[in-house]
Amino acid sequence: MEKAQFQSRWMPYLLLAPQMVIIAIFFIWPAAEAIRASFFLEDPFFGNSTFVGLQNYTDALSASDYKRTAWFTVVFTVLVSLLSLALGMMLAVSADRVLRGQSTYKTLLMWVYAIAPPVAGLIGVMLFDQHIGPLVDFAAMFGWHLQIGVDYWDTGFAMIVVSTWKQVPYCFIFFLSGLQSIPTSVKEASAIDCQSETRRFWTITFPLLAPTTFFLLILNITYAMFETFGTIDQIVKDQPGNSPVTLVYKVFRDGFRGNDIGGSSAQSVILMIFVLLLTIVQFRLIERRIHYT
Amino acid sequence: MAIADTDRLPPATSDKAKTKTKPQKPRSNIRLYDHIVLAIGVFIMMGPLVVAFLTSTHDYVTIHREGMQITWGGNFLETYKNVLYQKGGFTGEVTGLLMTQNSLILGIGFAVGKIVVSMLAAYAIVYFRFPFATLSFWIIFTTLLLPLEVRILPSYEVVQQLGMLNSYSGLIIPLIASATGTFFFRQFFKSIPNEMIEAARIDGAGPVQFFWDILVPLSKTMIAAIFIIMFVVGWNQYLWPTLMTTEEGYFTLVRGIRNIMQQMIGADIPEYNEALAMAVLAMLPPALVIMIFQRMFIKGLVEQEK
Where do the TM regions start and end (chain A) (predicted)? Predict the structure, then answer.
């Protein structure tokens, strides 16, 4: 439907001006600068820069440190995204079915959404602390001596647990609202046709939630890759050493600590390309997404 | 946290009643299962927060000796008074109260700024016909592609060149550059029936009048929902404030968490209680806002999907 519109020679530009100025200064300029810097080798002491072509990219991609970080990022992102999806869905399905106490459960399960990733990280650091952490004692009961900050995968494990914990409420809210928007008639009809609750879930409810699941999957990937910075920063305690980090953390570390501006920019651009691809996939899925209702 | 309202199995009184209630039995089992799942979920989600809060009421020697606590420590007032009023940090200038104030400025400034800027832009895109409408839309759209985290270093340099380090505007404005809000409002404006604008035009209302007298009142719920979401997003910012603010007078609570961590590394016996008290202070306001305006918040959040 065509929207009825106003005609004005200058007003739309005036209305758009604040947004456009902010985008130009704080988005386009830095993004362009990142792309430019990725082709130069900058000398942090003398301030002159030399054009080096793709060397920053080849250097970054061939470094063993980069490969290790990229590998951890993949493992971390896949686990955090899928675990928060699964747990969020499980809780939402149960919350949708109970009659009593639903709003209490909802309120309590949502609470963690409000917590900033670094705050979640700080609480996680305490819970996993060698001296005071109850989770270390708990793991020791099973003979697992968790050593956060010492053992590579133990540290990674803590990051995955804390980051998933932080993201579950988000998935829960979306799944619950998705479940509640399924018409009662559909629910009743399926209940008549199929006795088994489990089978009904996989054949009726789960396909109906598919669009929400795709949407959340993309958001979870973005969350795990970019927004977990605070959590990771808390857990590695500013001294990454042998600890696993994600690619975004490495961009930050190489750029600000290592003063490797060209290399850090090249890594930024690689991440930009990744996000671009992710967005294209997202749009393909939205175009094709099937509405059952 | 306890399963207060777990459904009991239907009582079996007589043989007749037994046969009658039999088909309901699996249903009850499922409800019991659901309550167990939810109770475990609540335990995992809220447990760490309860432990963090209770531990913060103990003194740090006890925590260091005995680990995290699940009882009330009685040191609540002292610890929280220290965190809120005692001057700390490297310069000795910053207090918890000041950081709370900075967090509020960032949260509210970010939310209000984003709403104003994006509402105006969405209004132009939806209600005006002009040559560069599509181009503007695509430029705004591209900002969704690149989160601040991937262009953090050049963003920092730009802000540095503009002399905006250690200022509220440098803290808030670059964060507004992402256009999520514009898409919210664009979507919402498109759902408003055309009759509105036609009726307004017949009555002789111009674009400014239409915006103020019709669009803004119609968007009230939407504005409130976005405000809640953006306030939480702004309050919880970490990486940007960490880079932007080196003067402690501009620290926010979430930014302050980073210093606490650094102080804990050096200490013999870290002040666990004060660190956790800071964490509690940093999470309480956004959590309360979300709890109080729960319905509105969920509505606004879920709207993103559409």
Answer: 12-32, 70-95, 107-128, 200-226, 266-286
Q: Which domain holds residue B212?
A: 98-303
pLDDT at A133: 84
Which of A108, A173, A227 is the closest to B301 by Cβ?
A173
Q: Which ipTM score applies to this complex?
A: 0.87
* Domain final residue pick, B59, B85, B111: B85
Structure tokens, B131: 């040559």
The domains of chain A are located at: 71-240+272-288
In a domain, B255, yes or no: yes
pLDDT in tens, B141-196: 878 777 788 788 888 888 888 888 888 888 899 888 888 888 888 888 888 888 88
SS (H, E, C) A227-243: HCHHHHHHHHCCCCCCC
The count of structural domains within chain B is: 2
Which residues of chain A does B35 touch, with a Cβ-Cβ cutoff of 8 Å? 94, 98, 101
Which chain B positions have a beta carbon within 8 Å of A251's beta carbon? 149-150, 152-153
Degrees (nearest 5) of the Cα angle A284, A286, A292? 130
Specify the DSSP element, H or E, that contains A222.
helix A210-222
Rounded Cα distance, B147 and A252, in Å: 14
Distance CA(A129)–CA(A139), nearest Å, equals 12
Is CATH 1.10.3720.10 what the domain over A71-240+272-288 is classified as, yes or no? yes
Q: What is the pLDDT of residues B206-222, one digit of tens each?
A: 888 888 888 899 888 88
Q: Tell me if B5 is assigned to some domain.
A: no
Tell me the one-letter amino acid at A110: M
In sequence order, the β-bridge partners of residue B88 are B94
The reply to whether B187 and B133 lie within a common domain is yes
Cβ-contact B149, B239 below 8 angstroms: yes
CATH number of the domain where residue B189 is located: 1.10.3720.10
